[in-house]
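Minutes, project check-in

Agenda point 3 was the complex the collaborators sent over. CS summarized: two entities, 919 residues total, and the question is how they sit relative to each other. Sequences were read into the notes so everyone works from the same version.
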Amino acid sequence: MFHVVVFVYLQCNCILLHMTYLLLFVTSLLSFSYVPEQRLLEATYLDSTEGQAQRRWDTVIPAKLDTFPRIQELEEVVVIDQAEMIRREESNNVELIKQDFIRENRSGSLMKSLERIPGISMIGIGSGASKPLIRGLGFNQVMVVENGLKHEGQQWGADHGLEVDQFAADQIQIIKGPASFKYGSDAIGGVIDIREKLAPAEDGFGGSVELGARSNNGWFGGSANVFYRKNNWFAEGRLTVADYGDFRVPTDSVFVYDFGVALHEGQVRNSAGQELDFSTRVGFLGKNFRNTLGVSRVSTKAGFFANAHGLEPRQVDTGLHDRSSRDILLPFQEVTHTKVINKVSYAAGKNFLQLDLGYQRNDRKEWSQYVNHGYMPAIYPAEMLYPSNQERAFDKEVFSINVKDEIFLDRHELGFGASGEYQHNDIGGWGFLIPAFQQYSYGFFAIDKYKLTPLWQLTAALRFDHSQIHVEEYQDWFPSVEDASQATEDDYLFRAEEFQRKFNSLVWSVGVNYNPGDLVLKANVGTSFRMPIAKELAANGVNYHYFRYERGNANLDPERSLQLDLGGELKKEKWLLSFSPFVNYFSNYIYLNPTAEMDVLYGAGNQVFNYTQAEVLRYGAELSALYQLNSKWSFELLGEYVYSEQKSGDKQGFTLPFSPPTSGIINATYKPLTEGFFSNPYFAVDFRATARQENIVPPEKVTPGYQLVNLRAGSAISVFGQEIQTDLQVQNLFNTRYLNHTSFYRLINLPEAGRNISVSLSYEF
Amino acid sequence: MKNWRLFILMMIFLASCGEDEKPLIDTEYPEILVEDDSFPLQCSVIERGTTLEFKAYFSDNVELGSYSLDIHHNFDHHTHSTEVNSCNEDPIKTPVNPLLLIQTFTIPEGLTEYVGTAEIEIPADIDPGDYHFMIRLTDQEGWQTLQGLSIKIE
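CS then shared the predicted structure for the full assembly.
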């Protein structure tokens, strides 16, 4: 029996008690429902089709289970599925997403493709860009790791997507919950760890081609990959190209505030875009020594909705914009993200040593017509350094190093590591949002996974981090006076003062896993942290497109969180149930607080938003249940729930921004057995229901609930002896008009994309 | 059987734990009400060298915060007007000496209704043409309502 009461006394709070007992209740139910049934097992082996259904879960049933639990019997359990192994061995809540899932659910951007996973949502901007939200936390609170290197874009910006080639992503490991002990600062809300394909296993030449089309925004694109291996050497290359037009919504007009905008054929004016990515790898794979050098570049160009730059209504030349749905006019953004990663590993006895060296550059430019806001001059001065349509530019360079030694002992799996990073951030353009800054950080960690018994495993981790930020000053290029001819030097305001801050952080984590046969139970409690970013420390300017004056606070402390995660998973021959609740407490969540105040001098008459810190309590859970009726039919139920509440400060009682509403998916999947032309066909229907979100915080709006139906189907088709995998998706089958609470354009009531039919073909050679 | 005992124990704990007393939170935006004597209105015309007598009615369910006024040129027809009806606009032109006004006002504490007034002098030497008159209103919780009006200065 597994009953661990982990008591986290945070505040006298009944919600916590509720949660703790709810968790206990579920754990006890799970363990109670564990009754080994010989009869069912026999039935499975008698019926060959059911046996096949079993193998879809990639496991072999323990041969004999009349007494339980006994160590000897566990040794007969053969676990061959990597995803399951990770779920059993990690005490955090981990989801492993495979290529097939991404292919079958492929959308315009990677995070959109992953939206089906419970606990995962996204902030979408247009049809080609999105950023992740894990259990309602996003921006700098979710870390994205690509091939072992922390992805550094402009995470703080709601309208900045994730610069990742989704065709290159082979496996994605999602940690739902804090993982600072392993990944460092920013992994406070969760981690999205994207990994490319493993090196080819056998000598020879191979590759793959994927082609696709999407009806809603006229997306055409594809990705091609070739690889070659000879003895210990391999090389690989990939090219991804995409081009799409304006996406369409099931409405003919929207209101940006009260400003009515007619949409031509339901097209979100100027939301078209392009993407061009390449990546290449060269590696040596020795018996003990391995080295891989990878270079990649992701380049995108995407328009912003022309009638609302940010959330600000704009008059546009509709004739010019509506001439073509595929052109990209002002305003638009261009991003180029370049990465160079060298990974070395050396296996020596019981040690596995790894060294990763990385360089990345995120070059972002935002283009828009000059409009004088606030005290800016009516006419853009000719002597300015930047062209009049370059509103903003961000240029970030990051150098990183990670070293790790894993030691595999009898019962212990030890890990020691260190990481270091240097960042250089420049800004440009006539608009100001964040100052230029440099930052360096280093950290050390130790992890021990201790196999107490074959059924019980303990994990403990400790990590120390140091970080230092140097913010550069920024002075306005225009005087903040109504009559510029009377301006003095003092009227050229400093939007950021030069300063330095140093931060230290010590975090710990303790976890336990209990894996009796077809049951997985886990608990993890730990702290996590996030260093404040330049914007939070030093912002002192107006975000004109949101009508707000954002004021940073140089005295902010690192954000700290304490979280209890539980996870339970029960697998029967026809059932797979999993439940992962969590309770999380932030002692000082960094929050941009809208105030009642307006500011003339620095804020140009806009509402003041102050960066402050508040206590926050969050809790929630994800649920999934899979029922395999027979070899052909399976049903699935997925659900997610998260609740957040600020427990102190001006917004006590309010939630956090971008809180995802409760939602669930009911799925039915049909996989007929066929031979010949079609192989492994599937048909799946998802019914998604999302509840109304009433927990809001200024400036959000209550978002009504909605229901959607999505269809997926596919099969491998044999053409001249070659297999071509074909996948078809119909998203938003009934062209439902709905609003997504966490969408960037939610505040201006822009509905989400209407019906979309997408087709993709993939061929491996 | 141990499970049932635990289950009952938990139900007792759950039952003994009453509903949390959650503070009531304000989720309503303040309102800018248009009355007969509100000024300016969408498409109002103001003469240079005169005084603009601003008057607007504000209301909030809990407590009003502050408001600000902003007049800037719209010679390029960039539009932040939040009114649906567009006015007769002059042709697009290049500004030479456009009027710019930014003013903030606090509303006395504890009010749910307030009449905002201000006297704004329109200088005689500024560029005539299409202007935006923006009213921003907040309440104590930080909800903000915008009203953007298109006006003409002759």
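Noted in discussion: Chain A touches chain B through 56 residues (CB under 8 Å).
Follow-up: revisit at the next meeting once the mutant set is ready.
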